[in-house]
Amino acid sequence: MQHFDEIFQRAANRKGGDKVLRGLLDSMPTGRDLRLISDAEVLAEMTACIFRAGFVWKVITAKWPGFEQAFHQFDVTRCAMLSDEELEALQRNTDIVRHGTKIASVRHNALYVLDIRAEFGSFGAFLAQWPAEDFVGLWNHLKKHGSRLGGQTGRYCLRFLGYDTPILSRDVVAALILAGVVDKEPTSQKDLLATQEAFNEWSAQSGRSRSQISRLLALSIG
Predict the structure, then answer these.
(1) Residue 175, Cβ neighbours under 10 Å: how many?
(2) H or E stretch at 218
(3) What sign has the CA pseudo-torsion 68, 56, 102, 132?
(4) Domains in the chain: ranges and CATH
């Protein structure tokens, strides 16, 4: 597996030198205090990422006020109590994207957030206590217990909430293959754990966050 310094130098050569590359990495937002995230914000981000998946993002952004009204400002308790009839009515609401299974995911994920709240106090507190070196375990948790939160959807949700996680974009995957970590897009648990091990090793070598390393890998290719 390639050392962090080798990947860094390749990216620096592509982007105009060490100073430029360090500026690109250091300008990334730093981690927030996850304990301060409200459960409504968590449910809203889950919903936004789910509806953006496979869709034009700017359409979701334009319709977002309609989503907030339709789902009671993402009040978790109210969304968890949506009836089947209310979910069916929302499929006729032109203020949102009328995708039945995605609409139903809001109720499921509200229940998921409530279950986490009962154990940890809030979903943000749950994220704050999850070990940074086990991000694949967190991906699996969202996929298993949430609705439509597997793959890139769950990863984007975590990143937008402020959790330090890689995004396995096409360029990142290409860089992982070039580095000898995997030989194809990591989808199996074995390959995902190999990816996690690589990120953790690069983090130890560089002192950089996993989000920054993800960005570095992308810059070393694209």
Answers:
(1) 24
(2) helix 210-219
(3) negative
(4) 4-31+166-219 (no CATH), 34-161 (1.10.340.30)
Rounded to an integer, what distance in angstroms lies between the CA atom of residue 212 and that of residue 180? 19
- The residue among 54, 59, 77, 83 whose CA lies nearest residue 152 is 54
Cα–Cα dist 118/109, whole Å: 14
159: nearest Cα among 187, 189, 190, 135: 135
31-43: pLDDT as tens digits:
789 999 999 999 9
Query: Tokens representing 91?
Result: 């499929």
Residue 19 corresponds to which tokens in the numbers above? 């100073």
Tokens of 31: 């981690």
Helix axes 39-52, 57-70, angle to 10 degrees: 140
pLDDT, tens digit, for every residue of 144-153? 999 999 999 9
| pTM: predicted TM-score of the whole model, two decimal places | 0.95
**Residues belonging to the chain:** 222
Q: What is the pLDDT of residues 120-177, one digit of tens each?
A: 999 999 999 999 999 999 999 999 999 999 999 999 999 999 999 999 999 999 999 9
